[in-house]
Specification:
Blueprint lengths: L13 H29 L3 H8 L4 H10 L7 H26 L1 E6 L6 E6 L8 E2 L3 H22 L21 H5 L1
Antiparallel strand pairs: 1-2, 2-3
Helix pairs in contact: 1-2, 1-3, 1-5, 3-4, 4-5
Length: about 180
């Protein structure tokens, strides 16, 4: 047996593994943007907000945002933020299923068909199918843009242009972009 073989066979195809990796890469933006949004609402630098929220799960960050929505004075921005919180909650559940679930093969009891899927005890036997990952990623991408738009509505200096680059470096002259976040 090869040293790179895990305890259980990975049931996802290469394409499905790519979908799963893309989902996680996009989800990291959700965590970051939630941190930025909450920092803007509290009117603190993002670095301070990040230090405060560093050990928080996405759900805890979302709860913190919900508890402080009243600090958003613009009614339309408040309503958008409230709606976004509600829609992100279901995505958090699916993200937890993908992250904390055990990926394996789901066997449909009626058809005996087999599908790559994640089992998550909290969801009983309702699988998250690997075939759902691409759509889950698309929905998550949409939420990153909505978060960016909310941040820009609160802080007009924030550039909400989609698909911009993100870079970071320990060199002070390279940190200009970090200040925006």
């Amino acid at each position: 047996m090869s040293d790179d073989a895990p305890e259980f066979r990975i049931s996802l195809s290469e394409a499905e593994l790519t979908d799963l990796g893309r989902f996680y890469a996009v989800w990291s933006q959700i965590d970051c943007l939630l941190c930025v949004l909450v920092s803007r609402i509290f009117n603190v630098e993002s670095g301070i907000g990040a230090a405060f929220m560093d050990a928080m799960t996405t759900g805890a960050r979302l709860d913190l945002l919900r508890r402080n929505l009243d600090d958003i004075k613009d009614k339309s921005v408040f309503e958008k933020a409230k709606k976004l919180c509600n829609s992100l909650a279901s995505l958090v559940d699916q993200r937890n299923h993908a992250t904390h679930g055990m990926w394996g093969t789901y066997v449909n009891p009626d058809t005996k068909s087999e599908y790559a899927a994640a089992f998550f005890g909290k969801k009983g036997f309702k699988p998250l199918y690997a075939s759902e990952l691409a759509e889950l990623t698309r929905r998550t991408i949409k939420k990153t843009r909505e978060l960016g738009e909310l941040i820009a509505a609160i802080d007009p200096k924030y550039d909400a242009t989609p698909n911009k680059g993100f870079w970071f470096s320990p060199e002070p002259e390279q940190m200009r972009h970090q200040e925006i976040i």
